[in-house]
């Protein structure tokens, strides 16, 4: 697919399981998260045999962001698709044109239609990704930095939130992903550009923009105390702490975020079984996984300090074990896994258009999302409560990487025991390559047991 100026928009990621939209802010944030994860824990990816796959997934996203950016026109693609048409179609993407049509609107931001949140996040994503590609493809990495710098200029020289835009495409983006403010994205972009270039002007900008971001207020969408596609300040605070450990402002900010989640100063609501629940809406596990990643990342940094005290060591262990508890929950520590195909009693009917074999159940195009049943986990139809999204996955990967990094005896995992869904009545035969690789005549069942470490293997015990 092409944009209005001939941009190749074929790469990138659809926003969620119920959507074939490419939405700028969550798209770019998910790519930033993946880049951060790879650069921070490349050893962990190597040990489990996933570094090449992770870099390939990252490049699929960064290629898209680069193609979205037209430097000569000073523009950037912020949205691909029409949500009204998209949400009326329930079926696989390869049949989209047959039932909906081939024309998909493309929306832009530029000097006259600012969206500093989106261009700032895209700048952060490309700058962070450049660090991941430095060793293997320095030419590509340099190109990413160049685009990141230009996008940062677009975001900061023509500041403005898409929440105030009258542009139809930006208004559509605002309805899907409402933003609190853009200063946190600008600070996020500036600190990643500093890490990528070591240019002091970016660090100075990050310091000023972090201060500005504190006046933007709390996220109207996602509650107080979240790190998400909308709120980047906790991530900025962590990176600034690592870069400027002598500046207490940033350490205080990241510790405040962590303390919102852990006793005795916990203020973020948790379920009875211990899952963080700061936002009572879509995707509780996205916020829990993001909190898990940041608490474990900060614990890693604390333990990297020269001769940490007993109090610091105990606090770091508390943070790390809290992060682990959130991921244990996602993987099934309560008896219910929330990762499709993984562990005991994993979800069987995810709200995932492109994975749903609509030919076996109903013809694609004749049901809308509103007609799909919502009886959580047990319905033979997909449902809203198990819809995945790209930022859910990037958050989970980020947190898991910290656990793999810590447990350094883990190696590659044989995926043949995962449930690939071929036991579904009427499902086609599994691909020959999968059958050959697993030595099976059918890849019908098989569940991986959740990797829930016993209490004795928690940090500090």
Question: Which residues form runs of ≥5 with pLDDT under 50?
Answer: 219-223, 358-382, 441-456
- Please trace the helix and strand order, writing H or E for each element: EHHHEEHHEHHHHHHHHHHH
- Helix content estimate: 40-55%
Number of extended strands:
4
CATH topology: Glycosyltransferase
Summed over residues and divided by their number, the pLDDT gives a mean of 85
Distance between the termini: 54 Å
Q: Into how many domains do the coordinates divide?
A: 1
Strand proportion: under 5%
Q: Structural class given helices, strands, pairing?
A: mainly alpha
Number of helices: 16
Taking Cα atoms only, what radius of gyration do you get, to the nearest Å? 22 Å
Describe the structure.
The chain has 461 residues and is mainly alpha-helical. It has one domain: Glycosyltransferase (Alpha/alpha barrel). Strands 1, 2, 3 and 4 form a 4-stranded antiparallel sheet that branches. Strand 2 and strand 3 form a beta hairpin. Helix 7 packs antiparallel against helix 9. The N and C termini lie far apart (54 Å). About 10% of the residues have low confidence.
